[in-house]
Design a protein that fits this description.
This protein is of the alpha+beta class and about 375 residues long. It has 13 helices and 7 strands. The protein has helices spanning about 5-10, 20-25, 50-60, 75-85, 90-95, 150-160, 160-165, 170-180, 185-205, 210-240, 240-245, 250-330, 345-365; strands at about 30-40, 40-45, 65-70, 100-105, 110-120, 125-135, 140-145. It has a 7-stranded mixed beta sheet, with helices on both faces. Helix 4 (about 75-85) packs antiparallel against helix 5 (about 90-95), helix 8 (about 170-180) packs parallel to helix 12 (about 250-330) and helix 9 (about 185-205) packs antiparallel against helix 10 (about 210-240).
Length: about 375
């Protein structure tokens, strides 16, 4: 990435005059996770404040500072910007989360934004975070927002390999890239398991599966936004091997990371396509189920209608003799049929004729 030369050959930061140091407001470092100085790949100091880090780095121009911050204050970032000549645009980006993954160069300083991810087993969802990295000739600054890889593990790994750490800040950057990419592997495995479960739920007719598909699809969009730009960023770094005289060991290291990123990006693309296909299949199955339910309702309605017609027909048939009997059951003195000898047979015959006629009519109309 860059030629490793003594710090003084890059630039010599002048020691601030006593009055300027006295006028500088005292800084608090609640967000400084760790600040460490290295020389020839070995730790030489672990200052407790940024001011002490700056002082010791000036005293040892051939050293390297590795500063880790989490949710830093504006004062801390401005202090770092003034000490290490960080570009104001990069500092502004580092203050805010929700940045897209990118790689930008400002003079001797490289600014990298990475999207870390981790899979949460209990809620079965993916959590994303951001990691902003400033890489200079003799310093490396990490700014964490949200979930991020275990940088303490990266630090231990590098300290256990002094020869690699002696290659400078660019070696630490590649180790961080590797940690972020390695963190994608559990996410890929978790998402693959979720997709397998979703396929079972889809064909099992689970009504809540549509929501799960939608939520996982949104997570895959975010995952794709985290991995796809990283492929181009790593290829851009590899394109600068010759220009910046990158060590051959680091070149092999970066190529391995690039291969893993490419593989992960392809898996994520496959997940999105699989979820789209599953959503289509689920919509088809839901439509088929709705059609079957509508068909069942229609058949039930038809059968119910047939029963109603039968009941209505028999009710009409039974109503006819009731009507005749009701009329002839009225005991009025002036009813001519009351004294008629054939009145009773006539009433019975009328009931039979009416009932038989109604039965024939309803039978022809398939009501009975």
């Amino acid at each position: 990435m860059s030629d490793r030369r003594p710090r003084a050959a890059w630039r010599r930061r002048p020691e601030p005059p006593p009055e300027a140091a006295a006028a500088r407001p005292p800084s608090v470092q609640p967000s400084v996770v760790q600040s460490t100085l290295y020389r020839d790949g070995r730790r030489v100091a672990s200052p407790s404040t940024l001011a002490e880090t700056f002082r010791q780095l000036r005293e040892h121009p051939d050293g390297m500072a590795w500063i880790g911050l989490q949710h830093p204050t504006e004062e801390e970032l401005h202090s770092l910007a003034g000490e290490f000549d960080l570009h104001e645009l990069a500092v502004e980006d580092a203050m805010e989360a929700h940045q897209r993954p990118k790689l930008e160069r400002y003079g001797d300083t490289l600014f990298v934004v990475l999207r870390a991810a981790r899979y949460l087993d209990a809620p079965e969802e993916v959590e994303f975070g951001e990691l902003h990295v400033f890489v200079g000739p003799d310093f490396l600054i990490t700014v964490r927002h949200g979930a991020a890889p275990d940088l303490s593990a990266v630090r231990r790994r590098m300290e256990e390999n002094p020869d690699l750490l002696a290659l400078g800040p660019e070696a630490v950057l590649y180790a961080i890239l590797d940690a972020v990419v390695d963190g994608y592997a559990p996410v890929v495995a978790g998402v693959q398991n979720d997709i397998d479960e979703i396929e079972t739920e889809v064909f099992g007719g689970d009504p809540a599966v549509s929501r799960r598909i939608y939520e996982l699809s949104r997570e895959m969009v975010e995952f794709q936004r985290a991995t796809r730009p990283l492929v181009g960023m790593l290829h851009a770094l590899m394109a600068g091997f010759a220009k910046y005289g990158t060590d051959e060991e680091l070149q092999r290291y970066l190529r391995d990371v690039a291969d893993h990123v490419t593989h992960t990006s392809e898996r994520v693309d496959g997940f999105r396509q699989a979820l789209t296909d599953i959503l289509t299949v689920n919509a088809t199955l839901v439509t088929q189920q709705q059609n079957a339910e509508m068909r069942a309702l229609a058949e039930a309605g038809f059968e119910q209608n047939e029963e109603i017609k039968k009941i209505s027909a028999w009710a009409a048939i039974l109503f006819a003799p009731t009507l005749v009997g009701t009329i002839y059951g009225m005991n009025f003195d002036n009813m001519p049929e009351l004294r008629w000898t054939g009145g009773y047979p006539f009433a019975i015959g009328l009931m039979g004729i009416v009932c038989t006629g109604l039965y024939v009519i309803f039978k022809r109309r398939d009501w009975l």
